[in-house]
Design a protein that fits this description.
Elements (H helix, E strand, L loop, with lengths): L1 H13 L16 E5 L3 H10 L5 E3 L2 E5 L6 H13 L6
Antiparallel strand pairs: 1-3, 2-3
């Protein structure tokens, strides 16, 4: 799971978005959160593309599971790129 989260964090950084999750693996859980300017709109837009994420405290929340792989994280990152204007 950590490798997927690291990939997601690197992608959020590449997009120039604000990471809300601690960078240090030992300080974070299974979730990765990024600041969103309009979190509900971002969640809805990604959901329309079949990407299931959630919103907590105005942040985008991504929770990779055992059945996810790098292709899933890459799909999330492509979706975030398409909707970059909704990230903060």
């Amino acid at each position: 799971m950590n490798a997927l989260n690291e990939r997601l964090i690197a992608g959020i950084d590449e997009l120039g978005a604000t990471l809300m999750t601690p960078r240090e693996a030992e300080r974070r859980g299974a979730l990765v959160c990024g600041r969103a300017s309009v979190a509900r709109a971002l969640v809805a837009a990604l959901g329309e593309e079949g990407i299931v994420v959630s919103e907590r405290d105005s942040n985008l929340r991504v929770s990779a599971h055992a059945y996810n792989d790098e292709r899933d994280i890459d799909a999330v990152l492509r979706g975030l790129q398409r909707h970059r204007r909704l990230l903060a």
